[in-house]
Specification:
By secondary structure, this protein is of the alpha+beta class. The chain folds into four domains: 86 residues, Arc Repressor Mutant, subunit A (Orthogonal Bundle); 34 residues; 88 residues, SH3 type barrels; 80 residues. 34% of the residues lie in helices and 20% in strands. It has ten helices and eleven strands. Helix 1 crosses helix 3 and helix 4 packs antiparallel against helix 5.
Amino acid sequence: MPVSRNALIRYKTIDTCLRNRFRKWTLEDLVDACSDALYEYEGIDKGISKRTVQMDIQLMRSEKLGYNAPIVVKDHKYYTYEDPEYSITNTPLSEQDLKVMSETVELLKQFNGFSYFSGMGDIISRLEDHVTSVRQKTTPIIDFEKNNSLTGLNYLNDLYQAILNQQPLSLKYRSFKARSAATFVFYPYLLKEYRNRWFVFGSKKNTRMLYNLALDRILELAPAKDEPYYGNSNFDPSTFFDDIVGVTKGINQHPEEVRFWVNPEHAPYVLTKPIHKSQHLIEQREDGSMVFQITVVINHELQREILGFGDGIRVLYPASLVRFMKSKFRSGSQLYTEDI
């Protein structure tokens, strides 16, 4: 059964109290202890009722949570554990626990480039050996989009460790537009996944510019020995992506207001799955079409997102984006009127 965070705090607090054999615990004492814990960890200052703690004790005694806690009342007043060695933290994993953990590992395996996650499979296997009941093998019921044929995923661990340890790297990299590969010293700051591709953000030696490099374009990677590591105070990962769609943005780029009209067919989709979190509805017309506005940096990913709707979206402004869309649709139209 699902258990809330506040309930878990109460169970742990009750457990801590009952394990303390140097004090006698009344119901009122347990209520006070739980109220103090909720205030300390969650900032909840309204306290809790006796009824809540009584229900907690009842649940801890039962099999519903898998605790089967041996809570007894002595002298019709004081709560304690009948077994002085008992603790809910010592409760062995149940079959349901293992099932949930196994399903979680299967989800984590989607990031198969990280050796940390693949190593958990063996941990789960060892835990499952302690379960005597035969588990029913089921087919997956959740499937995440993935592309196992992508190259560059083998660099995920090395890049992760380099960011963690602030280790400069010597990279051999070839972009799609470059005629040949270039080798340079790179200071990695952040790994980011977008549409099933991985990117690493960082700066090159002797420049303050920010680069986002696709992992599938990295040809070689090694620690850059005897090189100091330099951060970039202008790059804050917690806010950097707030005003963009995708991953492309220069340090000095600023967001613009983008307004667009969506036809009746596509309007419900754009309404329920916004192009950007800043999106808001400006106008809803009688024919079912809608006008939206977002505030974003205009980049390649935004342009591709809008183009993906074909004739379902018309950009109203800014003028620069209107001109770009006109040019692309004109070129696209020519593809279907001329022989290739």
